[in-house]
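Write out the 3D structure for:
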Amino acid sequence: MELGVIYIGDRGVGKTHLAMELANPKCNYVKVNYPDYDVLKSNLYIEDEGRTRATGYDKATYDEYLEIQVQLPTGYKQITLDWIDTPGEIWRKSWRENQPKQWQSFLETIRSSEGIMLLLPPYREIIKSEFNPETFITQQQWCNRFSRWVDFFRQDCPKIRHLILCLNKADLFCNLDQEASKLAYSPHRSQLNWQQRNTYVSQKFFRPIQQQIKQLDKSISGLSVRYFITSIHHRSLLELPWIYLGSFLAK
């Protein structure tokens, strides 16, 4: 089953690195069968500089076809999905005005998507002091930016059924092992179900935007919003949003 899932976020939030690490063969319950990790890494990673390539700003979207296998309580589920990466610049007004055709093409794609995975950066007030919080946006700026996302979803994504919010770079603001053991997934004996995980993560990490989420719920009927914290440095946290997708979208 083809799933219309689009993967978006502002520039520098870590989208490319997160997707690349998902394909790492050292996996738990989510395995990327295609494309091959080494091929993906050679295309996306600059070894000498120790960083991923920025998504070029001349195109609105970059389509990657992904074949993912998820281990669920009912057995293995194959998901094929289109990972549509977008350069961060696409959200700038100047970019959209200069590239109207590409913007329209992007809107057509996103309007037919069932699921959107939005990667969000952490905000200053939750960053651990050793990582220099001053280099991050404030909670107020973060909330303002999310309000613009809400406007975008309401106006341009009326068919969206699953909105997956990932607060990325979790290693900068929490104890990864502690949170991962709390949120741990196992096909046979998870201590929390999806609803319990969702409540825990939303109350602990997404409290500042609860009002905006309520607005979104009111304006898009049948929308399910799910919350995750993600990091390239912890495999089980990295896999959780994709296991959720496997559980709900591969049916």
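The radius of gyration is 17 Å.
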